[in-house]
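Deliverable D2.4 — example input (structure tokens):
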């Protein structure tokens, strides 16, 4: 897609205030109509006949929108009704059809590229939303951590090239340590900051302990843990469930199995939350709220992408 086409679409968005779920649904479905029917489109033929004289955009709905998004590897639901019941859908459809028709008169349109543009806007929309935690008394605290990491994993699938899971994991562990020890005991860093080039012994360095946080333990990490041991430090690896067996196996292969502690992150955080909450229901709620508050403070201070923040719903 030519750069000037991107610019025209961006200009259209600004001029028509084409923001949010409803307009995005309309853009995706109408672009699909244009691909199937050809341009120019007749906007009146894209209006269904309503029982009371009204009408809706033809084909607009959750199923149609999700089918388009699925072609691009997005499973997340953009809108429950797919923009079908929005009062603005008909005028949005008409103004967008006029825009497409005008562009098609000027030069041939690559509608696959136009669709990709709107899918990119959907990715941006999803990425702009914070992760969510909803406290449920029937769920354990491990489930809370698992849910947040699951959301980060889904976002990572929808936005290839950004390691949301690794970043969220690192800052959750950092927030947990701050809640347990008090802020100021160690330094927090942007997730993209590489440990080795900066001379850091781990993601967190407390007392004589070097803590390494990772979603995918490898031989390089075990070598760094070996360096920690040679420097008189005690290495700890905090990882996801599937990473525990990998880290243990790699450590034992290098005869370091008894010298490196490996913890699964859900347990590492959840047990501490129980302790901070003094194993009481109200205490647990407070402990989770404190963890989320501290996590958000860390993200604010060291990350430029604040969509990693967590919205706690009590």
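Example output (designed residues):
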């Amino acid at each position: 897609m030519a750069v000037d086409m991107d610019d025209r679409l961006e200009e259209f968005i600004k001029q028509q205030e084409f923001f949010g779920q409803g307009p995005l649904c309309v853009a995706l479905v109408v672009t699909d109509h244009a691909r199937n029917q050809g341009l120019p489109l007749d906007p009146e033929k894209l209006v269904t006949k309503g029982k009371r004289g009204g009408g809706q955009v033809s084909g607009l709905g959750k199923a149609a929108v999700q089918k388009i998004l699925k072609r691009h590897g997005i499973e997340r639901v953009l809108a429950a009704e797919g923009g079908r019941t929005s009062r603005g859908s008909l005028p949005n459809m008409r103004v967008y059809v006029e825009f497409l028709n005008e562009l098609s008169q000027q030069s041939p349109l690559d509608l696959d590229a136009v669709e990709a543009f709107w899918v990119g806007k959907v990715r941006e929309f999803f990425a702009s939303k914070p992760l969510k935690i909803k406290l449920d008394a029937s769920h354990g605290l491990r489930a809370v951590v698992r849910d947040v990491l699951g959301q980060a994993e889904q976002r990572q699938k929808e936005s290839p090239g950004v390691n949301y899971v690794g970043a969220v994991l690192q800052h959750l562990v950092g927030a947990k340590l701050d809640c347990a020890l008090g802020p100021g005991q160690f330094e927090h860093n942007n997730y993209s900051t590489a440990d080795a080039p900066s001379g850091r012994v781990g993601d967190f360095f407390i007392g004589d302990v070097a803590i390494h946080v990772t979603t995918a333990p490898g031989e390089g990490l075990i070598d760094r843990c070996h360096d920690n041991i040679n420097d008189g430090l005690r290495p700890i690896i905090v990882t996801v469930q599937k990473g525990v067996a990998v880290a243990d196996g790699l450590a034992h292969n290098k005869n370091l199995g008894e010298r490196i502690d490996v913890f699964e992150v859900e347990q590492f955080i959840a047990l501490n939350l129980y302790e901070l909450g003094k194993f009481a229901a109200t205490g647990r709620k407070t402990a989770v709220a404190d963890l989320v508050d501290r996590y958000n403070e860390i993200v604010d201070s060291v990350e430029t992408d604040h969509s990693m923040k967590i919205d706690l719903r009590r």
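The mean pLDDT is 89.
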